[in-house]
Amino acid sequence: MREPMSYGAHGASSHEASRNEALAKFLEWFQQYQKELKKQTSRLQIVGREHCGKTWFARKLSEMSECVASHFCRPDEPQSSEPATVIRSIGEQLMRRFPNLVLPRLTTVTLLEDTVSALDHYLRLPLETMPSSSKPVFIVIDSVDDEETQILIQMLIDILPTWIRMVTTSREEYSIDKKSSEKGDILELDLMNDADFDRFIRSKLPHCHVEEVREASEGSWFYVDQLSRAVELGMVPSDLVPPPGVEKMMHLVARSLPGAFADIVRLAKTSRCRPTRQQLLAVSQMLISRDISILEKDIRLISALIGSSPVESELFDVPDIWFYLVGEENLRCHAAWAEHYKTKRRKSAQDICELAYHLSHSTTNPINAIKTLQSVGAGNLILRCHVIDLPTTALLKSAGAKLEENNYDVVYACSVGDVSYLDAILREVKPLPMEICFGLLTAAARGNIEMCRYLADHFPQLVTSSCCGEWNALRSAACYGQLEILHLLLDKGVDVDECGHSDRTALRAAAWSGQLAAVQLLLQTGAEVDRRDSEQRTALMAAAFMGHRDVVSVIIQYGADVNAVDKSGATALHLNLSNGSKQDEHSETTQLLLEHNADCKIEDGNGRVALHLAAYHGDPCLPFIFEKNQIVDIMDNMGQTPLMLAASQGQINAVQFLTVTAHADVDSIDNNGRTALQWAAINGHSKVVEYLCGVGSDEGHKDNDGAVALHYAVTHDDVELVKPLTNKHTVEAKDRYGQHPMMIAAANGNLKVLEYLMEVSDIINQPDHEGRTALSLASMASHTSIIETIAPKITDWSQRDSDGTPLIHTLILSNLIYVAEVFLTNGGCSSDADSHGRTCVHVVASTNDVAAAKMLKRIGGVNFEAVDRGGRTALMTAVWARHVAISVFLLDSCGVDPNRSDRQGATALSIAAQIGDRDLVNLLLKFGAEPKIKDSMGRTAMDVALISGNDSIVSLLQSANGSSGSSGIGSSVPNSPMDASKQRIRQIRATSSLRSQRIDHNFK
């Protein structure tokens, strides 16, 4: 089946969609300070009860472009919450995000023992000297639930610049200063997601009542997700009553897990770090007496059922709550892990430390533990700080490992500028050249002139060295405007254009950072003004992108090529306009470039000229750029004009200028046949849509997909956006797939918009080319509110697809039981049959879906004795498929007649006899099935069993009816419900022998 064009996100996963309201709340908090950066509101605390989805939400935030760093504290990995780990994690991400940020590589000991001072030199000083971001950004730290981490968060907030906000998640609100009521802003995840949580329940557990699950789960997203996985894997019945509370649910799931489950999870917990499945398998063999193939299957099953890592991941990772359920009993587990590391062929220093950790926490005799460590080379280790914990360190020392009492940190000494301290370190130890190199980098960035002079005198070979192939001391000093350091390094003979593998010189670094004095000094010293980096960008381009007007002016005075292009074909003007800033200095930089003959007609790699970029960002200098290039309808490689780009971004001022002053063609089309109006509608910019309609843009224009602007506007639940585009012509317009806007609104669940459109036209029942209607699209997307709203206008509730299958069948087969119930209670008919005459009761019988059958019984009016075109009942269908559960339900709860026969006279018992299912035969006999009933050819169930070679069934039926043999009539047997024509052919060709032929009947 051909898929329709996607107009919105209705295909997204329900879990992802369940946080839309929370994300909207977050964006509201974040955006309200875009212009006014208030320090006292720089923190947002996201709070919620355990397992309400805080970590998922934090990961969602970490994927946003405004997030510059994120860190996740894991309860099962204590080291992930240590200050040193958190600080280093945040720092490394900030360096990747901001290419001109130089952070010293401080040791773990320094970060742990002198956190306040280390933070000052590691983050505050470098960040303070960086140019401010043109817009606020944020850092996310998840699971801030202990006091030590909370204190660290407050320290980070105190040293971060105002343009970096802090977002944390925790189980409760927290304020460091107990005397102050200031906690930052609070976002309570639990309180605002009732509707989202209900949608999540319906998507994950469609068989259950939402109210029952909500009450039983106590608001836990973990509860719903975990239970649904157990149902999906068939570990617990789909029709169960949700157990009250997370713990009881976990006990229920645990009963379906392999017997070795508790030991396997304890082993995973004891490993300290998340093990791979192969590691866990190797260790499990030492603790659990089972065949390795069985253990492997057990681990795979446990991982699939309760694991938090993706199915394809090799890690064995489960939520920490399972660790609490299985309890401690870790002594044997530690011994197993110790044996694993002991038998490992090639042992790294980390392996020896892990071995020591497990030995120190097991029942191993201390003397034996020491001998084991000595045999694997623990005596050769030099420990610079305590390893893992004190018992581990003590055991390693007993085995001969040396613990350095003086924990020197060369880089930190250089960072603080303490020459005497560094001199003392150098007399005691011989540091690695890389440490000295990083120390010089840091000292240069801090402006520690005496430290730089000391290092340059004692290590002259490192003065021009690059760290990580990119940074050198000259570039570091230039980036932070340290003029004295620049003079010193240049006097020491450092080449002013010295650069690493990235080809970024000191001049480029100073230009990017806006260090005017440093730029002047470097140019006066002879720096090559148009030297290019690996991206073919010059210092002028770097300064122009950052909007440093004074720096741009100086570089131009030294003869820089204003119209040089980089690898992407962009000039300094292109890059300047790409920044999107609307600050005064940015506009002044743009005007300066224009005054010095920046060419507005040069096209970049996307075919865009300056006018395109200025329109896209709504640049204040748009009128000046238009004066330089008045071809207003110029197209880029995608055929898009400046007006289209401005409209797509909601830049109303730019749109007004381009249409009124520049006289842009409002109905110009791009390569996709779309106009500016359609691009504004696609991105939901109601003001631009209203304005363009007001100046005569054609709302009835169709693009290459046959869609009008209204098709795109209805993907947003914004009536104000839709109003200017709505008339009877556009509401009834169909795209290339035959879909009209009402169908798109229904598929996206946009109720307000759909209600508005229904006032204009009654086209709600018209289908697309595949036979789908607004009702079927809304139903398949689980938008029950749409079903209830449009129900009074529905004229055809069967909603058959191109194969003749009614919608109610499709909903049940798609496991959308809750939606099916809403569908039936609002007008859907349970007796609708497909091309084979099968109703929805046949569907639940063929899929063994007891939950759906219960729903059908609950709504009432359903005929469980309905027959298909072959005269077969749902019970017969269930028996053919060997489905015991649904057969029991039909017989016991629905009271169906077990002795009904199809058009060939076959009963359910005859079918069970043919397929040789003893359980079903017993079940049918128990509920009154008559063994003596004969089909149209005079055969009893025992005859059929005899023909099929099912001797055990023959014996069972003999004991049931007291007969000692068969009737001996005929050789054919009842046919599969899906294969009537083949059976008629077999009847013609049948022989008189009862055993001469075996007939294979497959339920198709």
Automatic annotation (TrEMBL):
GO terms for cellular component: nucleus
Stretches for region Disordered: 962-1004
UniProt repeat feature ANK, residue ranges: 502-534, 535-567, 568-605, 638-671, 672-704, 737-769, 904-936
Domain Nephrocystin 3-like N-terminal: 31-171
SMART domains, alphabetized: ANK
Alphabetic keyword roster: ANK repeat, Repeat
Keyword Repeat included in the entry's annotation: yes
Compositional bias of kind Low complexity: 962-972
InterPro entries: Ank_Repeat/CDKN_Inhibitor, Ankyrin_rpt, Ankyrin_rpt-contain_sf, NPHP3-like_N, P-loop_NTPase
SUPFAM superfamilies in alphabetical order: Ankyrin repeat, P-loop containing nucleoside triphosphate hydrolases
Listed name of the protein: Nephrocystin 3-like N-terminal domain-containing protein
Lineage: Eukaryota, Metazoa, Ecdysozoa, Nematoda, Chromadorea
